[in-house]
Amino acid sequence: MKKALVSLFSLGALVGVLNQGVYGSPKQEAPQAKSTSVLTVGATPVPHGELLNLVKSDLAAQGIELKVVEFTDYVTPNSALIAGDLDANYFQHIPYLGSNPEWVEKLGSAFGVHVEPLGLYAASFKDAADLPEGALIAIPNDPTNGGRALLLLQSKGIITLRADAGLSASPQDITNNPKNFRFRELEAAQLPRSLGDVDAAVINGNYALEAGLNPVQDSLVLEGADSPYVNIVVVKKGNEKDPRIEALSQALRSQKVKDYINKTWEGSVIAIF
Q: How far apart are CA 259 and CA 252, in angstroms?
């Protein structure tokens, strides 16, 4: 009986060896596909959307699918973020984010990327000094960018504002206007198209670029690199440390992006990192 059990054991072992020899190594579990998470970011097309598209492959390598949703105005991206249609947006600066109580309550800055210098442009004049008496100047109609436009004109000695006017200055805050310039407030996106109807317009950098204007070469006056209006990536409060957002921060604040900004816009967009 003992001899029979030994023989049976030996036979089982032999069958195992033969099975390995015929069928190869024991079956291995198939490697699981790398999981992919989606990150949906709203942006105005230039330069924000362009920079986001530039880093899509960098995020894909980390298992993050970046979806870019483009907007042509400054209000909808924040509404869409609050509604949950976006995970983040990239188009605005901190003073603009702070201009709406609901945005202040529900949204927060995750990180800053660049500055788009605001500039004064004209179709028929090459220097701000050439603007005639009573010239009509268009400025953005939202309080933050409108105030920013007037502060730019004040910094160049074109007008003077009340000392306490602050970032939300309006034409009513002008205390000295030597050439009696008139001001027309328009939606920021319309300003490039207004150049044929006004003597000059103060235009946000992204809209100037979209219209084919070069802020460095074409503007009559331009903000300096020390502008406090840094463009930021915004998320719902509490999501600033979301791993996808941190990965986006690393991608957008990389040497690759800085080199692209410098080469593509040559001072019309300025990286802050």
A: 11
In 3D, which of 84, 39, 36, 77 has the Cα closest to residue 246?
39
Q: 77-129, pLDDT tens digit by residue?
A: 999 999 999 999 999 999 999 999 999 999 999 999 999 999 999 999 999 99
Residue-number span of the structural domain to which 203 is assigned: 119-222
Q: Is 157 exposed, middle or buried (0-12, 13-18, 19+ CB in 10 A)?
A: exposed
Question: Residues 42, 234: contact at Cβ < 8 Å?
Answer: no
Omega cis (within 30) before 132: no
Q: What's the pLDDT tens digit per position in 164-219?
A: 998 889 999 999 999 999 999 999 999 999 999 999 999 999 999 999 999 999 99
Number of domain units in the chain = 2
Report pLDDT digits (tens) over 138-153: 999 998 899 999 999 9
Same domain, 109 and 234: yes
Return the ∠ at Cα 252 (arms to 209 and 109), rounded to 5°.
90
Residue 36 CA to residue 66 CA, distance in Å, equals: 10
DSSP states of 147-214: HHHHHHHHHTTS-EE-TT-GGG--GGGEEE-TT--EEEEE-GGGTGGGGGTSSEEEE-HHHHHHTT--
Please report which helix (H) or strand (E) contains residue 250, including its range. Answer: helix 243-252
In the block, residue with structure tokens 């079956």: 27
Same domain, 150 and 106: no
For the chain, what percent of residues have pLDDT higher than 90? 82
Surface-to-core class of residue 115, CB atoms within 10 Å of its CB (0-12 exposed, 13-18 middle, 19+ buried): buried
